[in-house]
Amino acid sequence: MVLLNKFFILANGQFNKFSIHLPCYFSSRCKNFFLVFAVCFCTSTIGQQTQADSYTRYELLTPESQSFRIIYDVSATAAGAKYYWNTLRKGSEHQVDAVWDLYSGKELTWQIVDGKTAKQNGLANANDEGEYLQIQLARVVPENGEARLRIDKTYKDAESYFTNDASIIFSRSLGIERNSIVLPKGYELTHCNYPSQVQLTSEGHIKLSFMNDGPQAIPLKIKAKPLPPTVSIKKPEENKYVFDNSGSGRNMAQVRLGWEFDERAYQNREIVYFLRQPETHSFRLYHDYTETRPGMDRYLNIVRAGSKASDPSAILLDTGESLKVETFKGQEIAEKGIAIDGPITETSEVIAIWYDPVEEGQSKRLRITETYTDENRYGLDEDELVWDRSFGRNRNVVVLPEGWFLTTSSIPAVIDQNEDGLTALHFVNGRPDNIEVYIKAQRK
């Protein structure tokens, strides 16, 4: 993931998370330090605040109210933390409606406190003049884990949301990486100054969403105007588009009638590749996944054709506990009753992670770690490192091995170095398709 506030190290085969400090793995992507008025970060352990996976949904209410609902998903990541603090922005009238623990689905206890109280309770760099939503977590943040929250609040802010002539305007600086804005019902979008996906919600509202892959907050400005009273927005239908699964991709000569895509910014899968020396054709990786479907008790990782997976492990990030992991090949897959896309062959391979079934209203977030060997897509061309791999997730990081410097990247990336001097490429893809990442490096 293109994280600004998370740092992982590889130790004893495990990825460990600890508080951010400068310089650090993602430190050059310093966007969070532009967010000091939104979220406070500190630099030690227990009682200090770090976070990940931030996503905000703004629902614009009636124009005369000058108000908007904010649904904010965030993960508290500082091991040992008992509280999470959300800064309440100055200049807005705010109302907190509820806070939920996404793992259990239960509401959490919260209170609004001043900066001095927040500081006394553990937020060391709280602004004495600031105001904070102090949330008591359902459980202490586990080592190598996180506490996932959903905050539901309403702001009235005439500076951010107002009417000009016949149009409504939403103009606000947004520093969170993933955002969506939902227009009032019956309004058409006329202007947006930042590249965004546009979709219809199930209730017939127009929604914009985007991912911020830059180092600064976005000065977003949206304009919309009311549709004529005789116009009724048609709600989206169930996705009727079917791929043929032939492996050749969709028929480019025909329109994708009935195609509906998921909001890319809302997707919270993430993956980080740690390349080993290219002679080995191998890389260690971890990927995070959230399961929300009631009754689901497994995650199936289908190993790509041409790749080999080894040494898999998994933890439940919500509790830090290790999960049962099994690898099945060929007919073992069918014998276990596991269904995969396409036929099962002798070379088919599945890594299965097992956990207690998800209950209604709950969710689970997993971290799967494994080593891949792929002689076809990673290795040496004479004396140059070459990586050629397709990325389907919206957030990906590739870390070069020791002793190599970057010379080529076909897809635009944010580039930095970790405290060990290893070059990392951060790829963000806000489109609903894959990116073909081609990287080359040379020896130092």
Total helical elements? 2
Secondary-structure class: mainly beta
Looking at the structure, the CATH topology of the domain at 8-226 is: Immunoglobulin-like
CATH level-1 class of the domain at 8-226: Mainly Beta
Number of strands: 30
- Identify low-pLDDT runs: 1-46
Write down the overall geometry. Answer: globular
* Rg measurement, Å: 23 Å
Major sheet details? 7 strands, mixed
Mean pLDDT: 86
Oligomer: single chain
Named at the architecture level, the CATH assignment of the domain at 8-226 is Sandwich
Please bin the fraction of helical residues: under 10%
What is the straight-line distance between the termini?
Answer: 27 Å
**Widest sheet, order of strands:** 6-9-4-3-12-15-14
In terms of DSSP E residues, the strand content is 35-45%
The CATH homologous superfamily of the domain at 8-226? tricorn interacting facor f3 domain
Give a description of the structure:
- The protein has 444 residues and is mainly beta.
- Among the domains are: 8-226, Immunoglobulin-like, CATH 2.60.40.1730; 292-362, no CATH class.
- The protein has two helices and 30 strands.
- It has helices at 115-120, 331-335, and strands spanning 8-11, 14-17, 51-60, 67-76, 83-87, 93-101, 110-114, 131-136, 147-156, 161-164, 167-174, 178-182, 187-192, 197-200, 206-211, 218-226, 270-275, 282-291, 298-302, 308-316, 324-329, 349-354, 364-373, 378-381, 384-391, 395-399, 404-409, 414-417, 423-428, 435-443.
- It has a seven-stranded mixed beta sheet with strand order 6-9-4-3-12-15-14, with no helix packed on it.
- The two termini are 27 Å apart.
- Mean pLDDT is 86; it is low at 1-46.
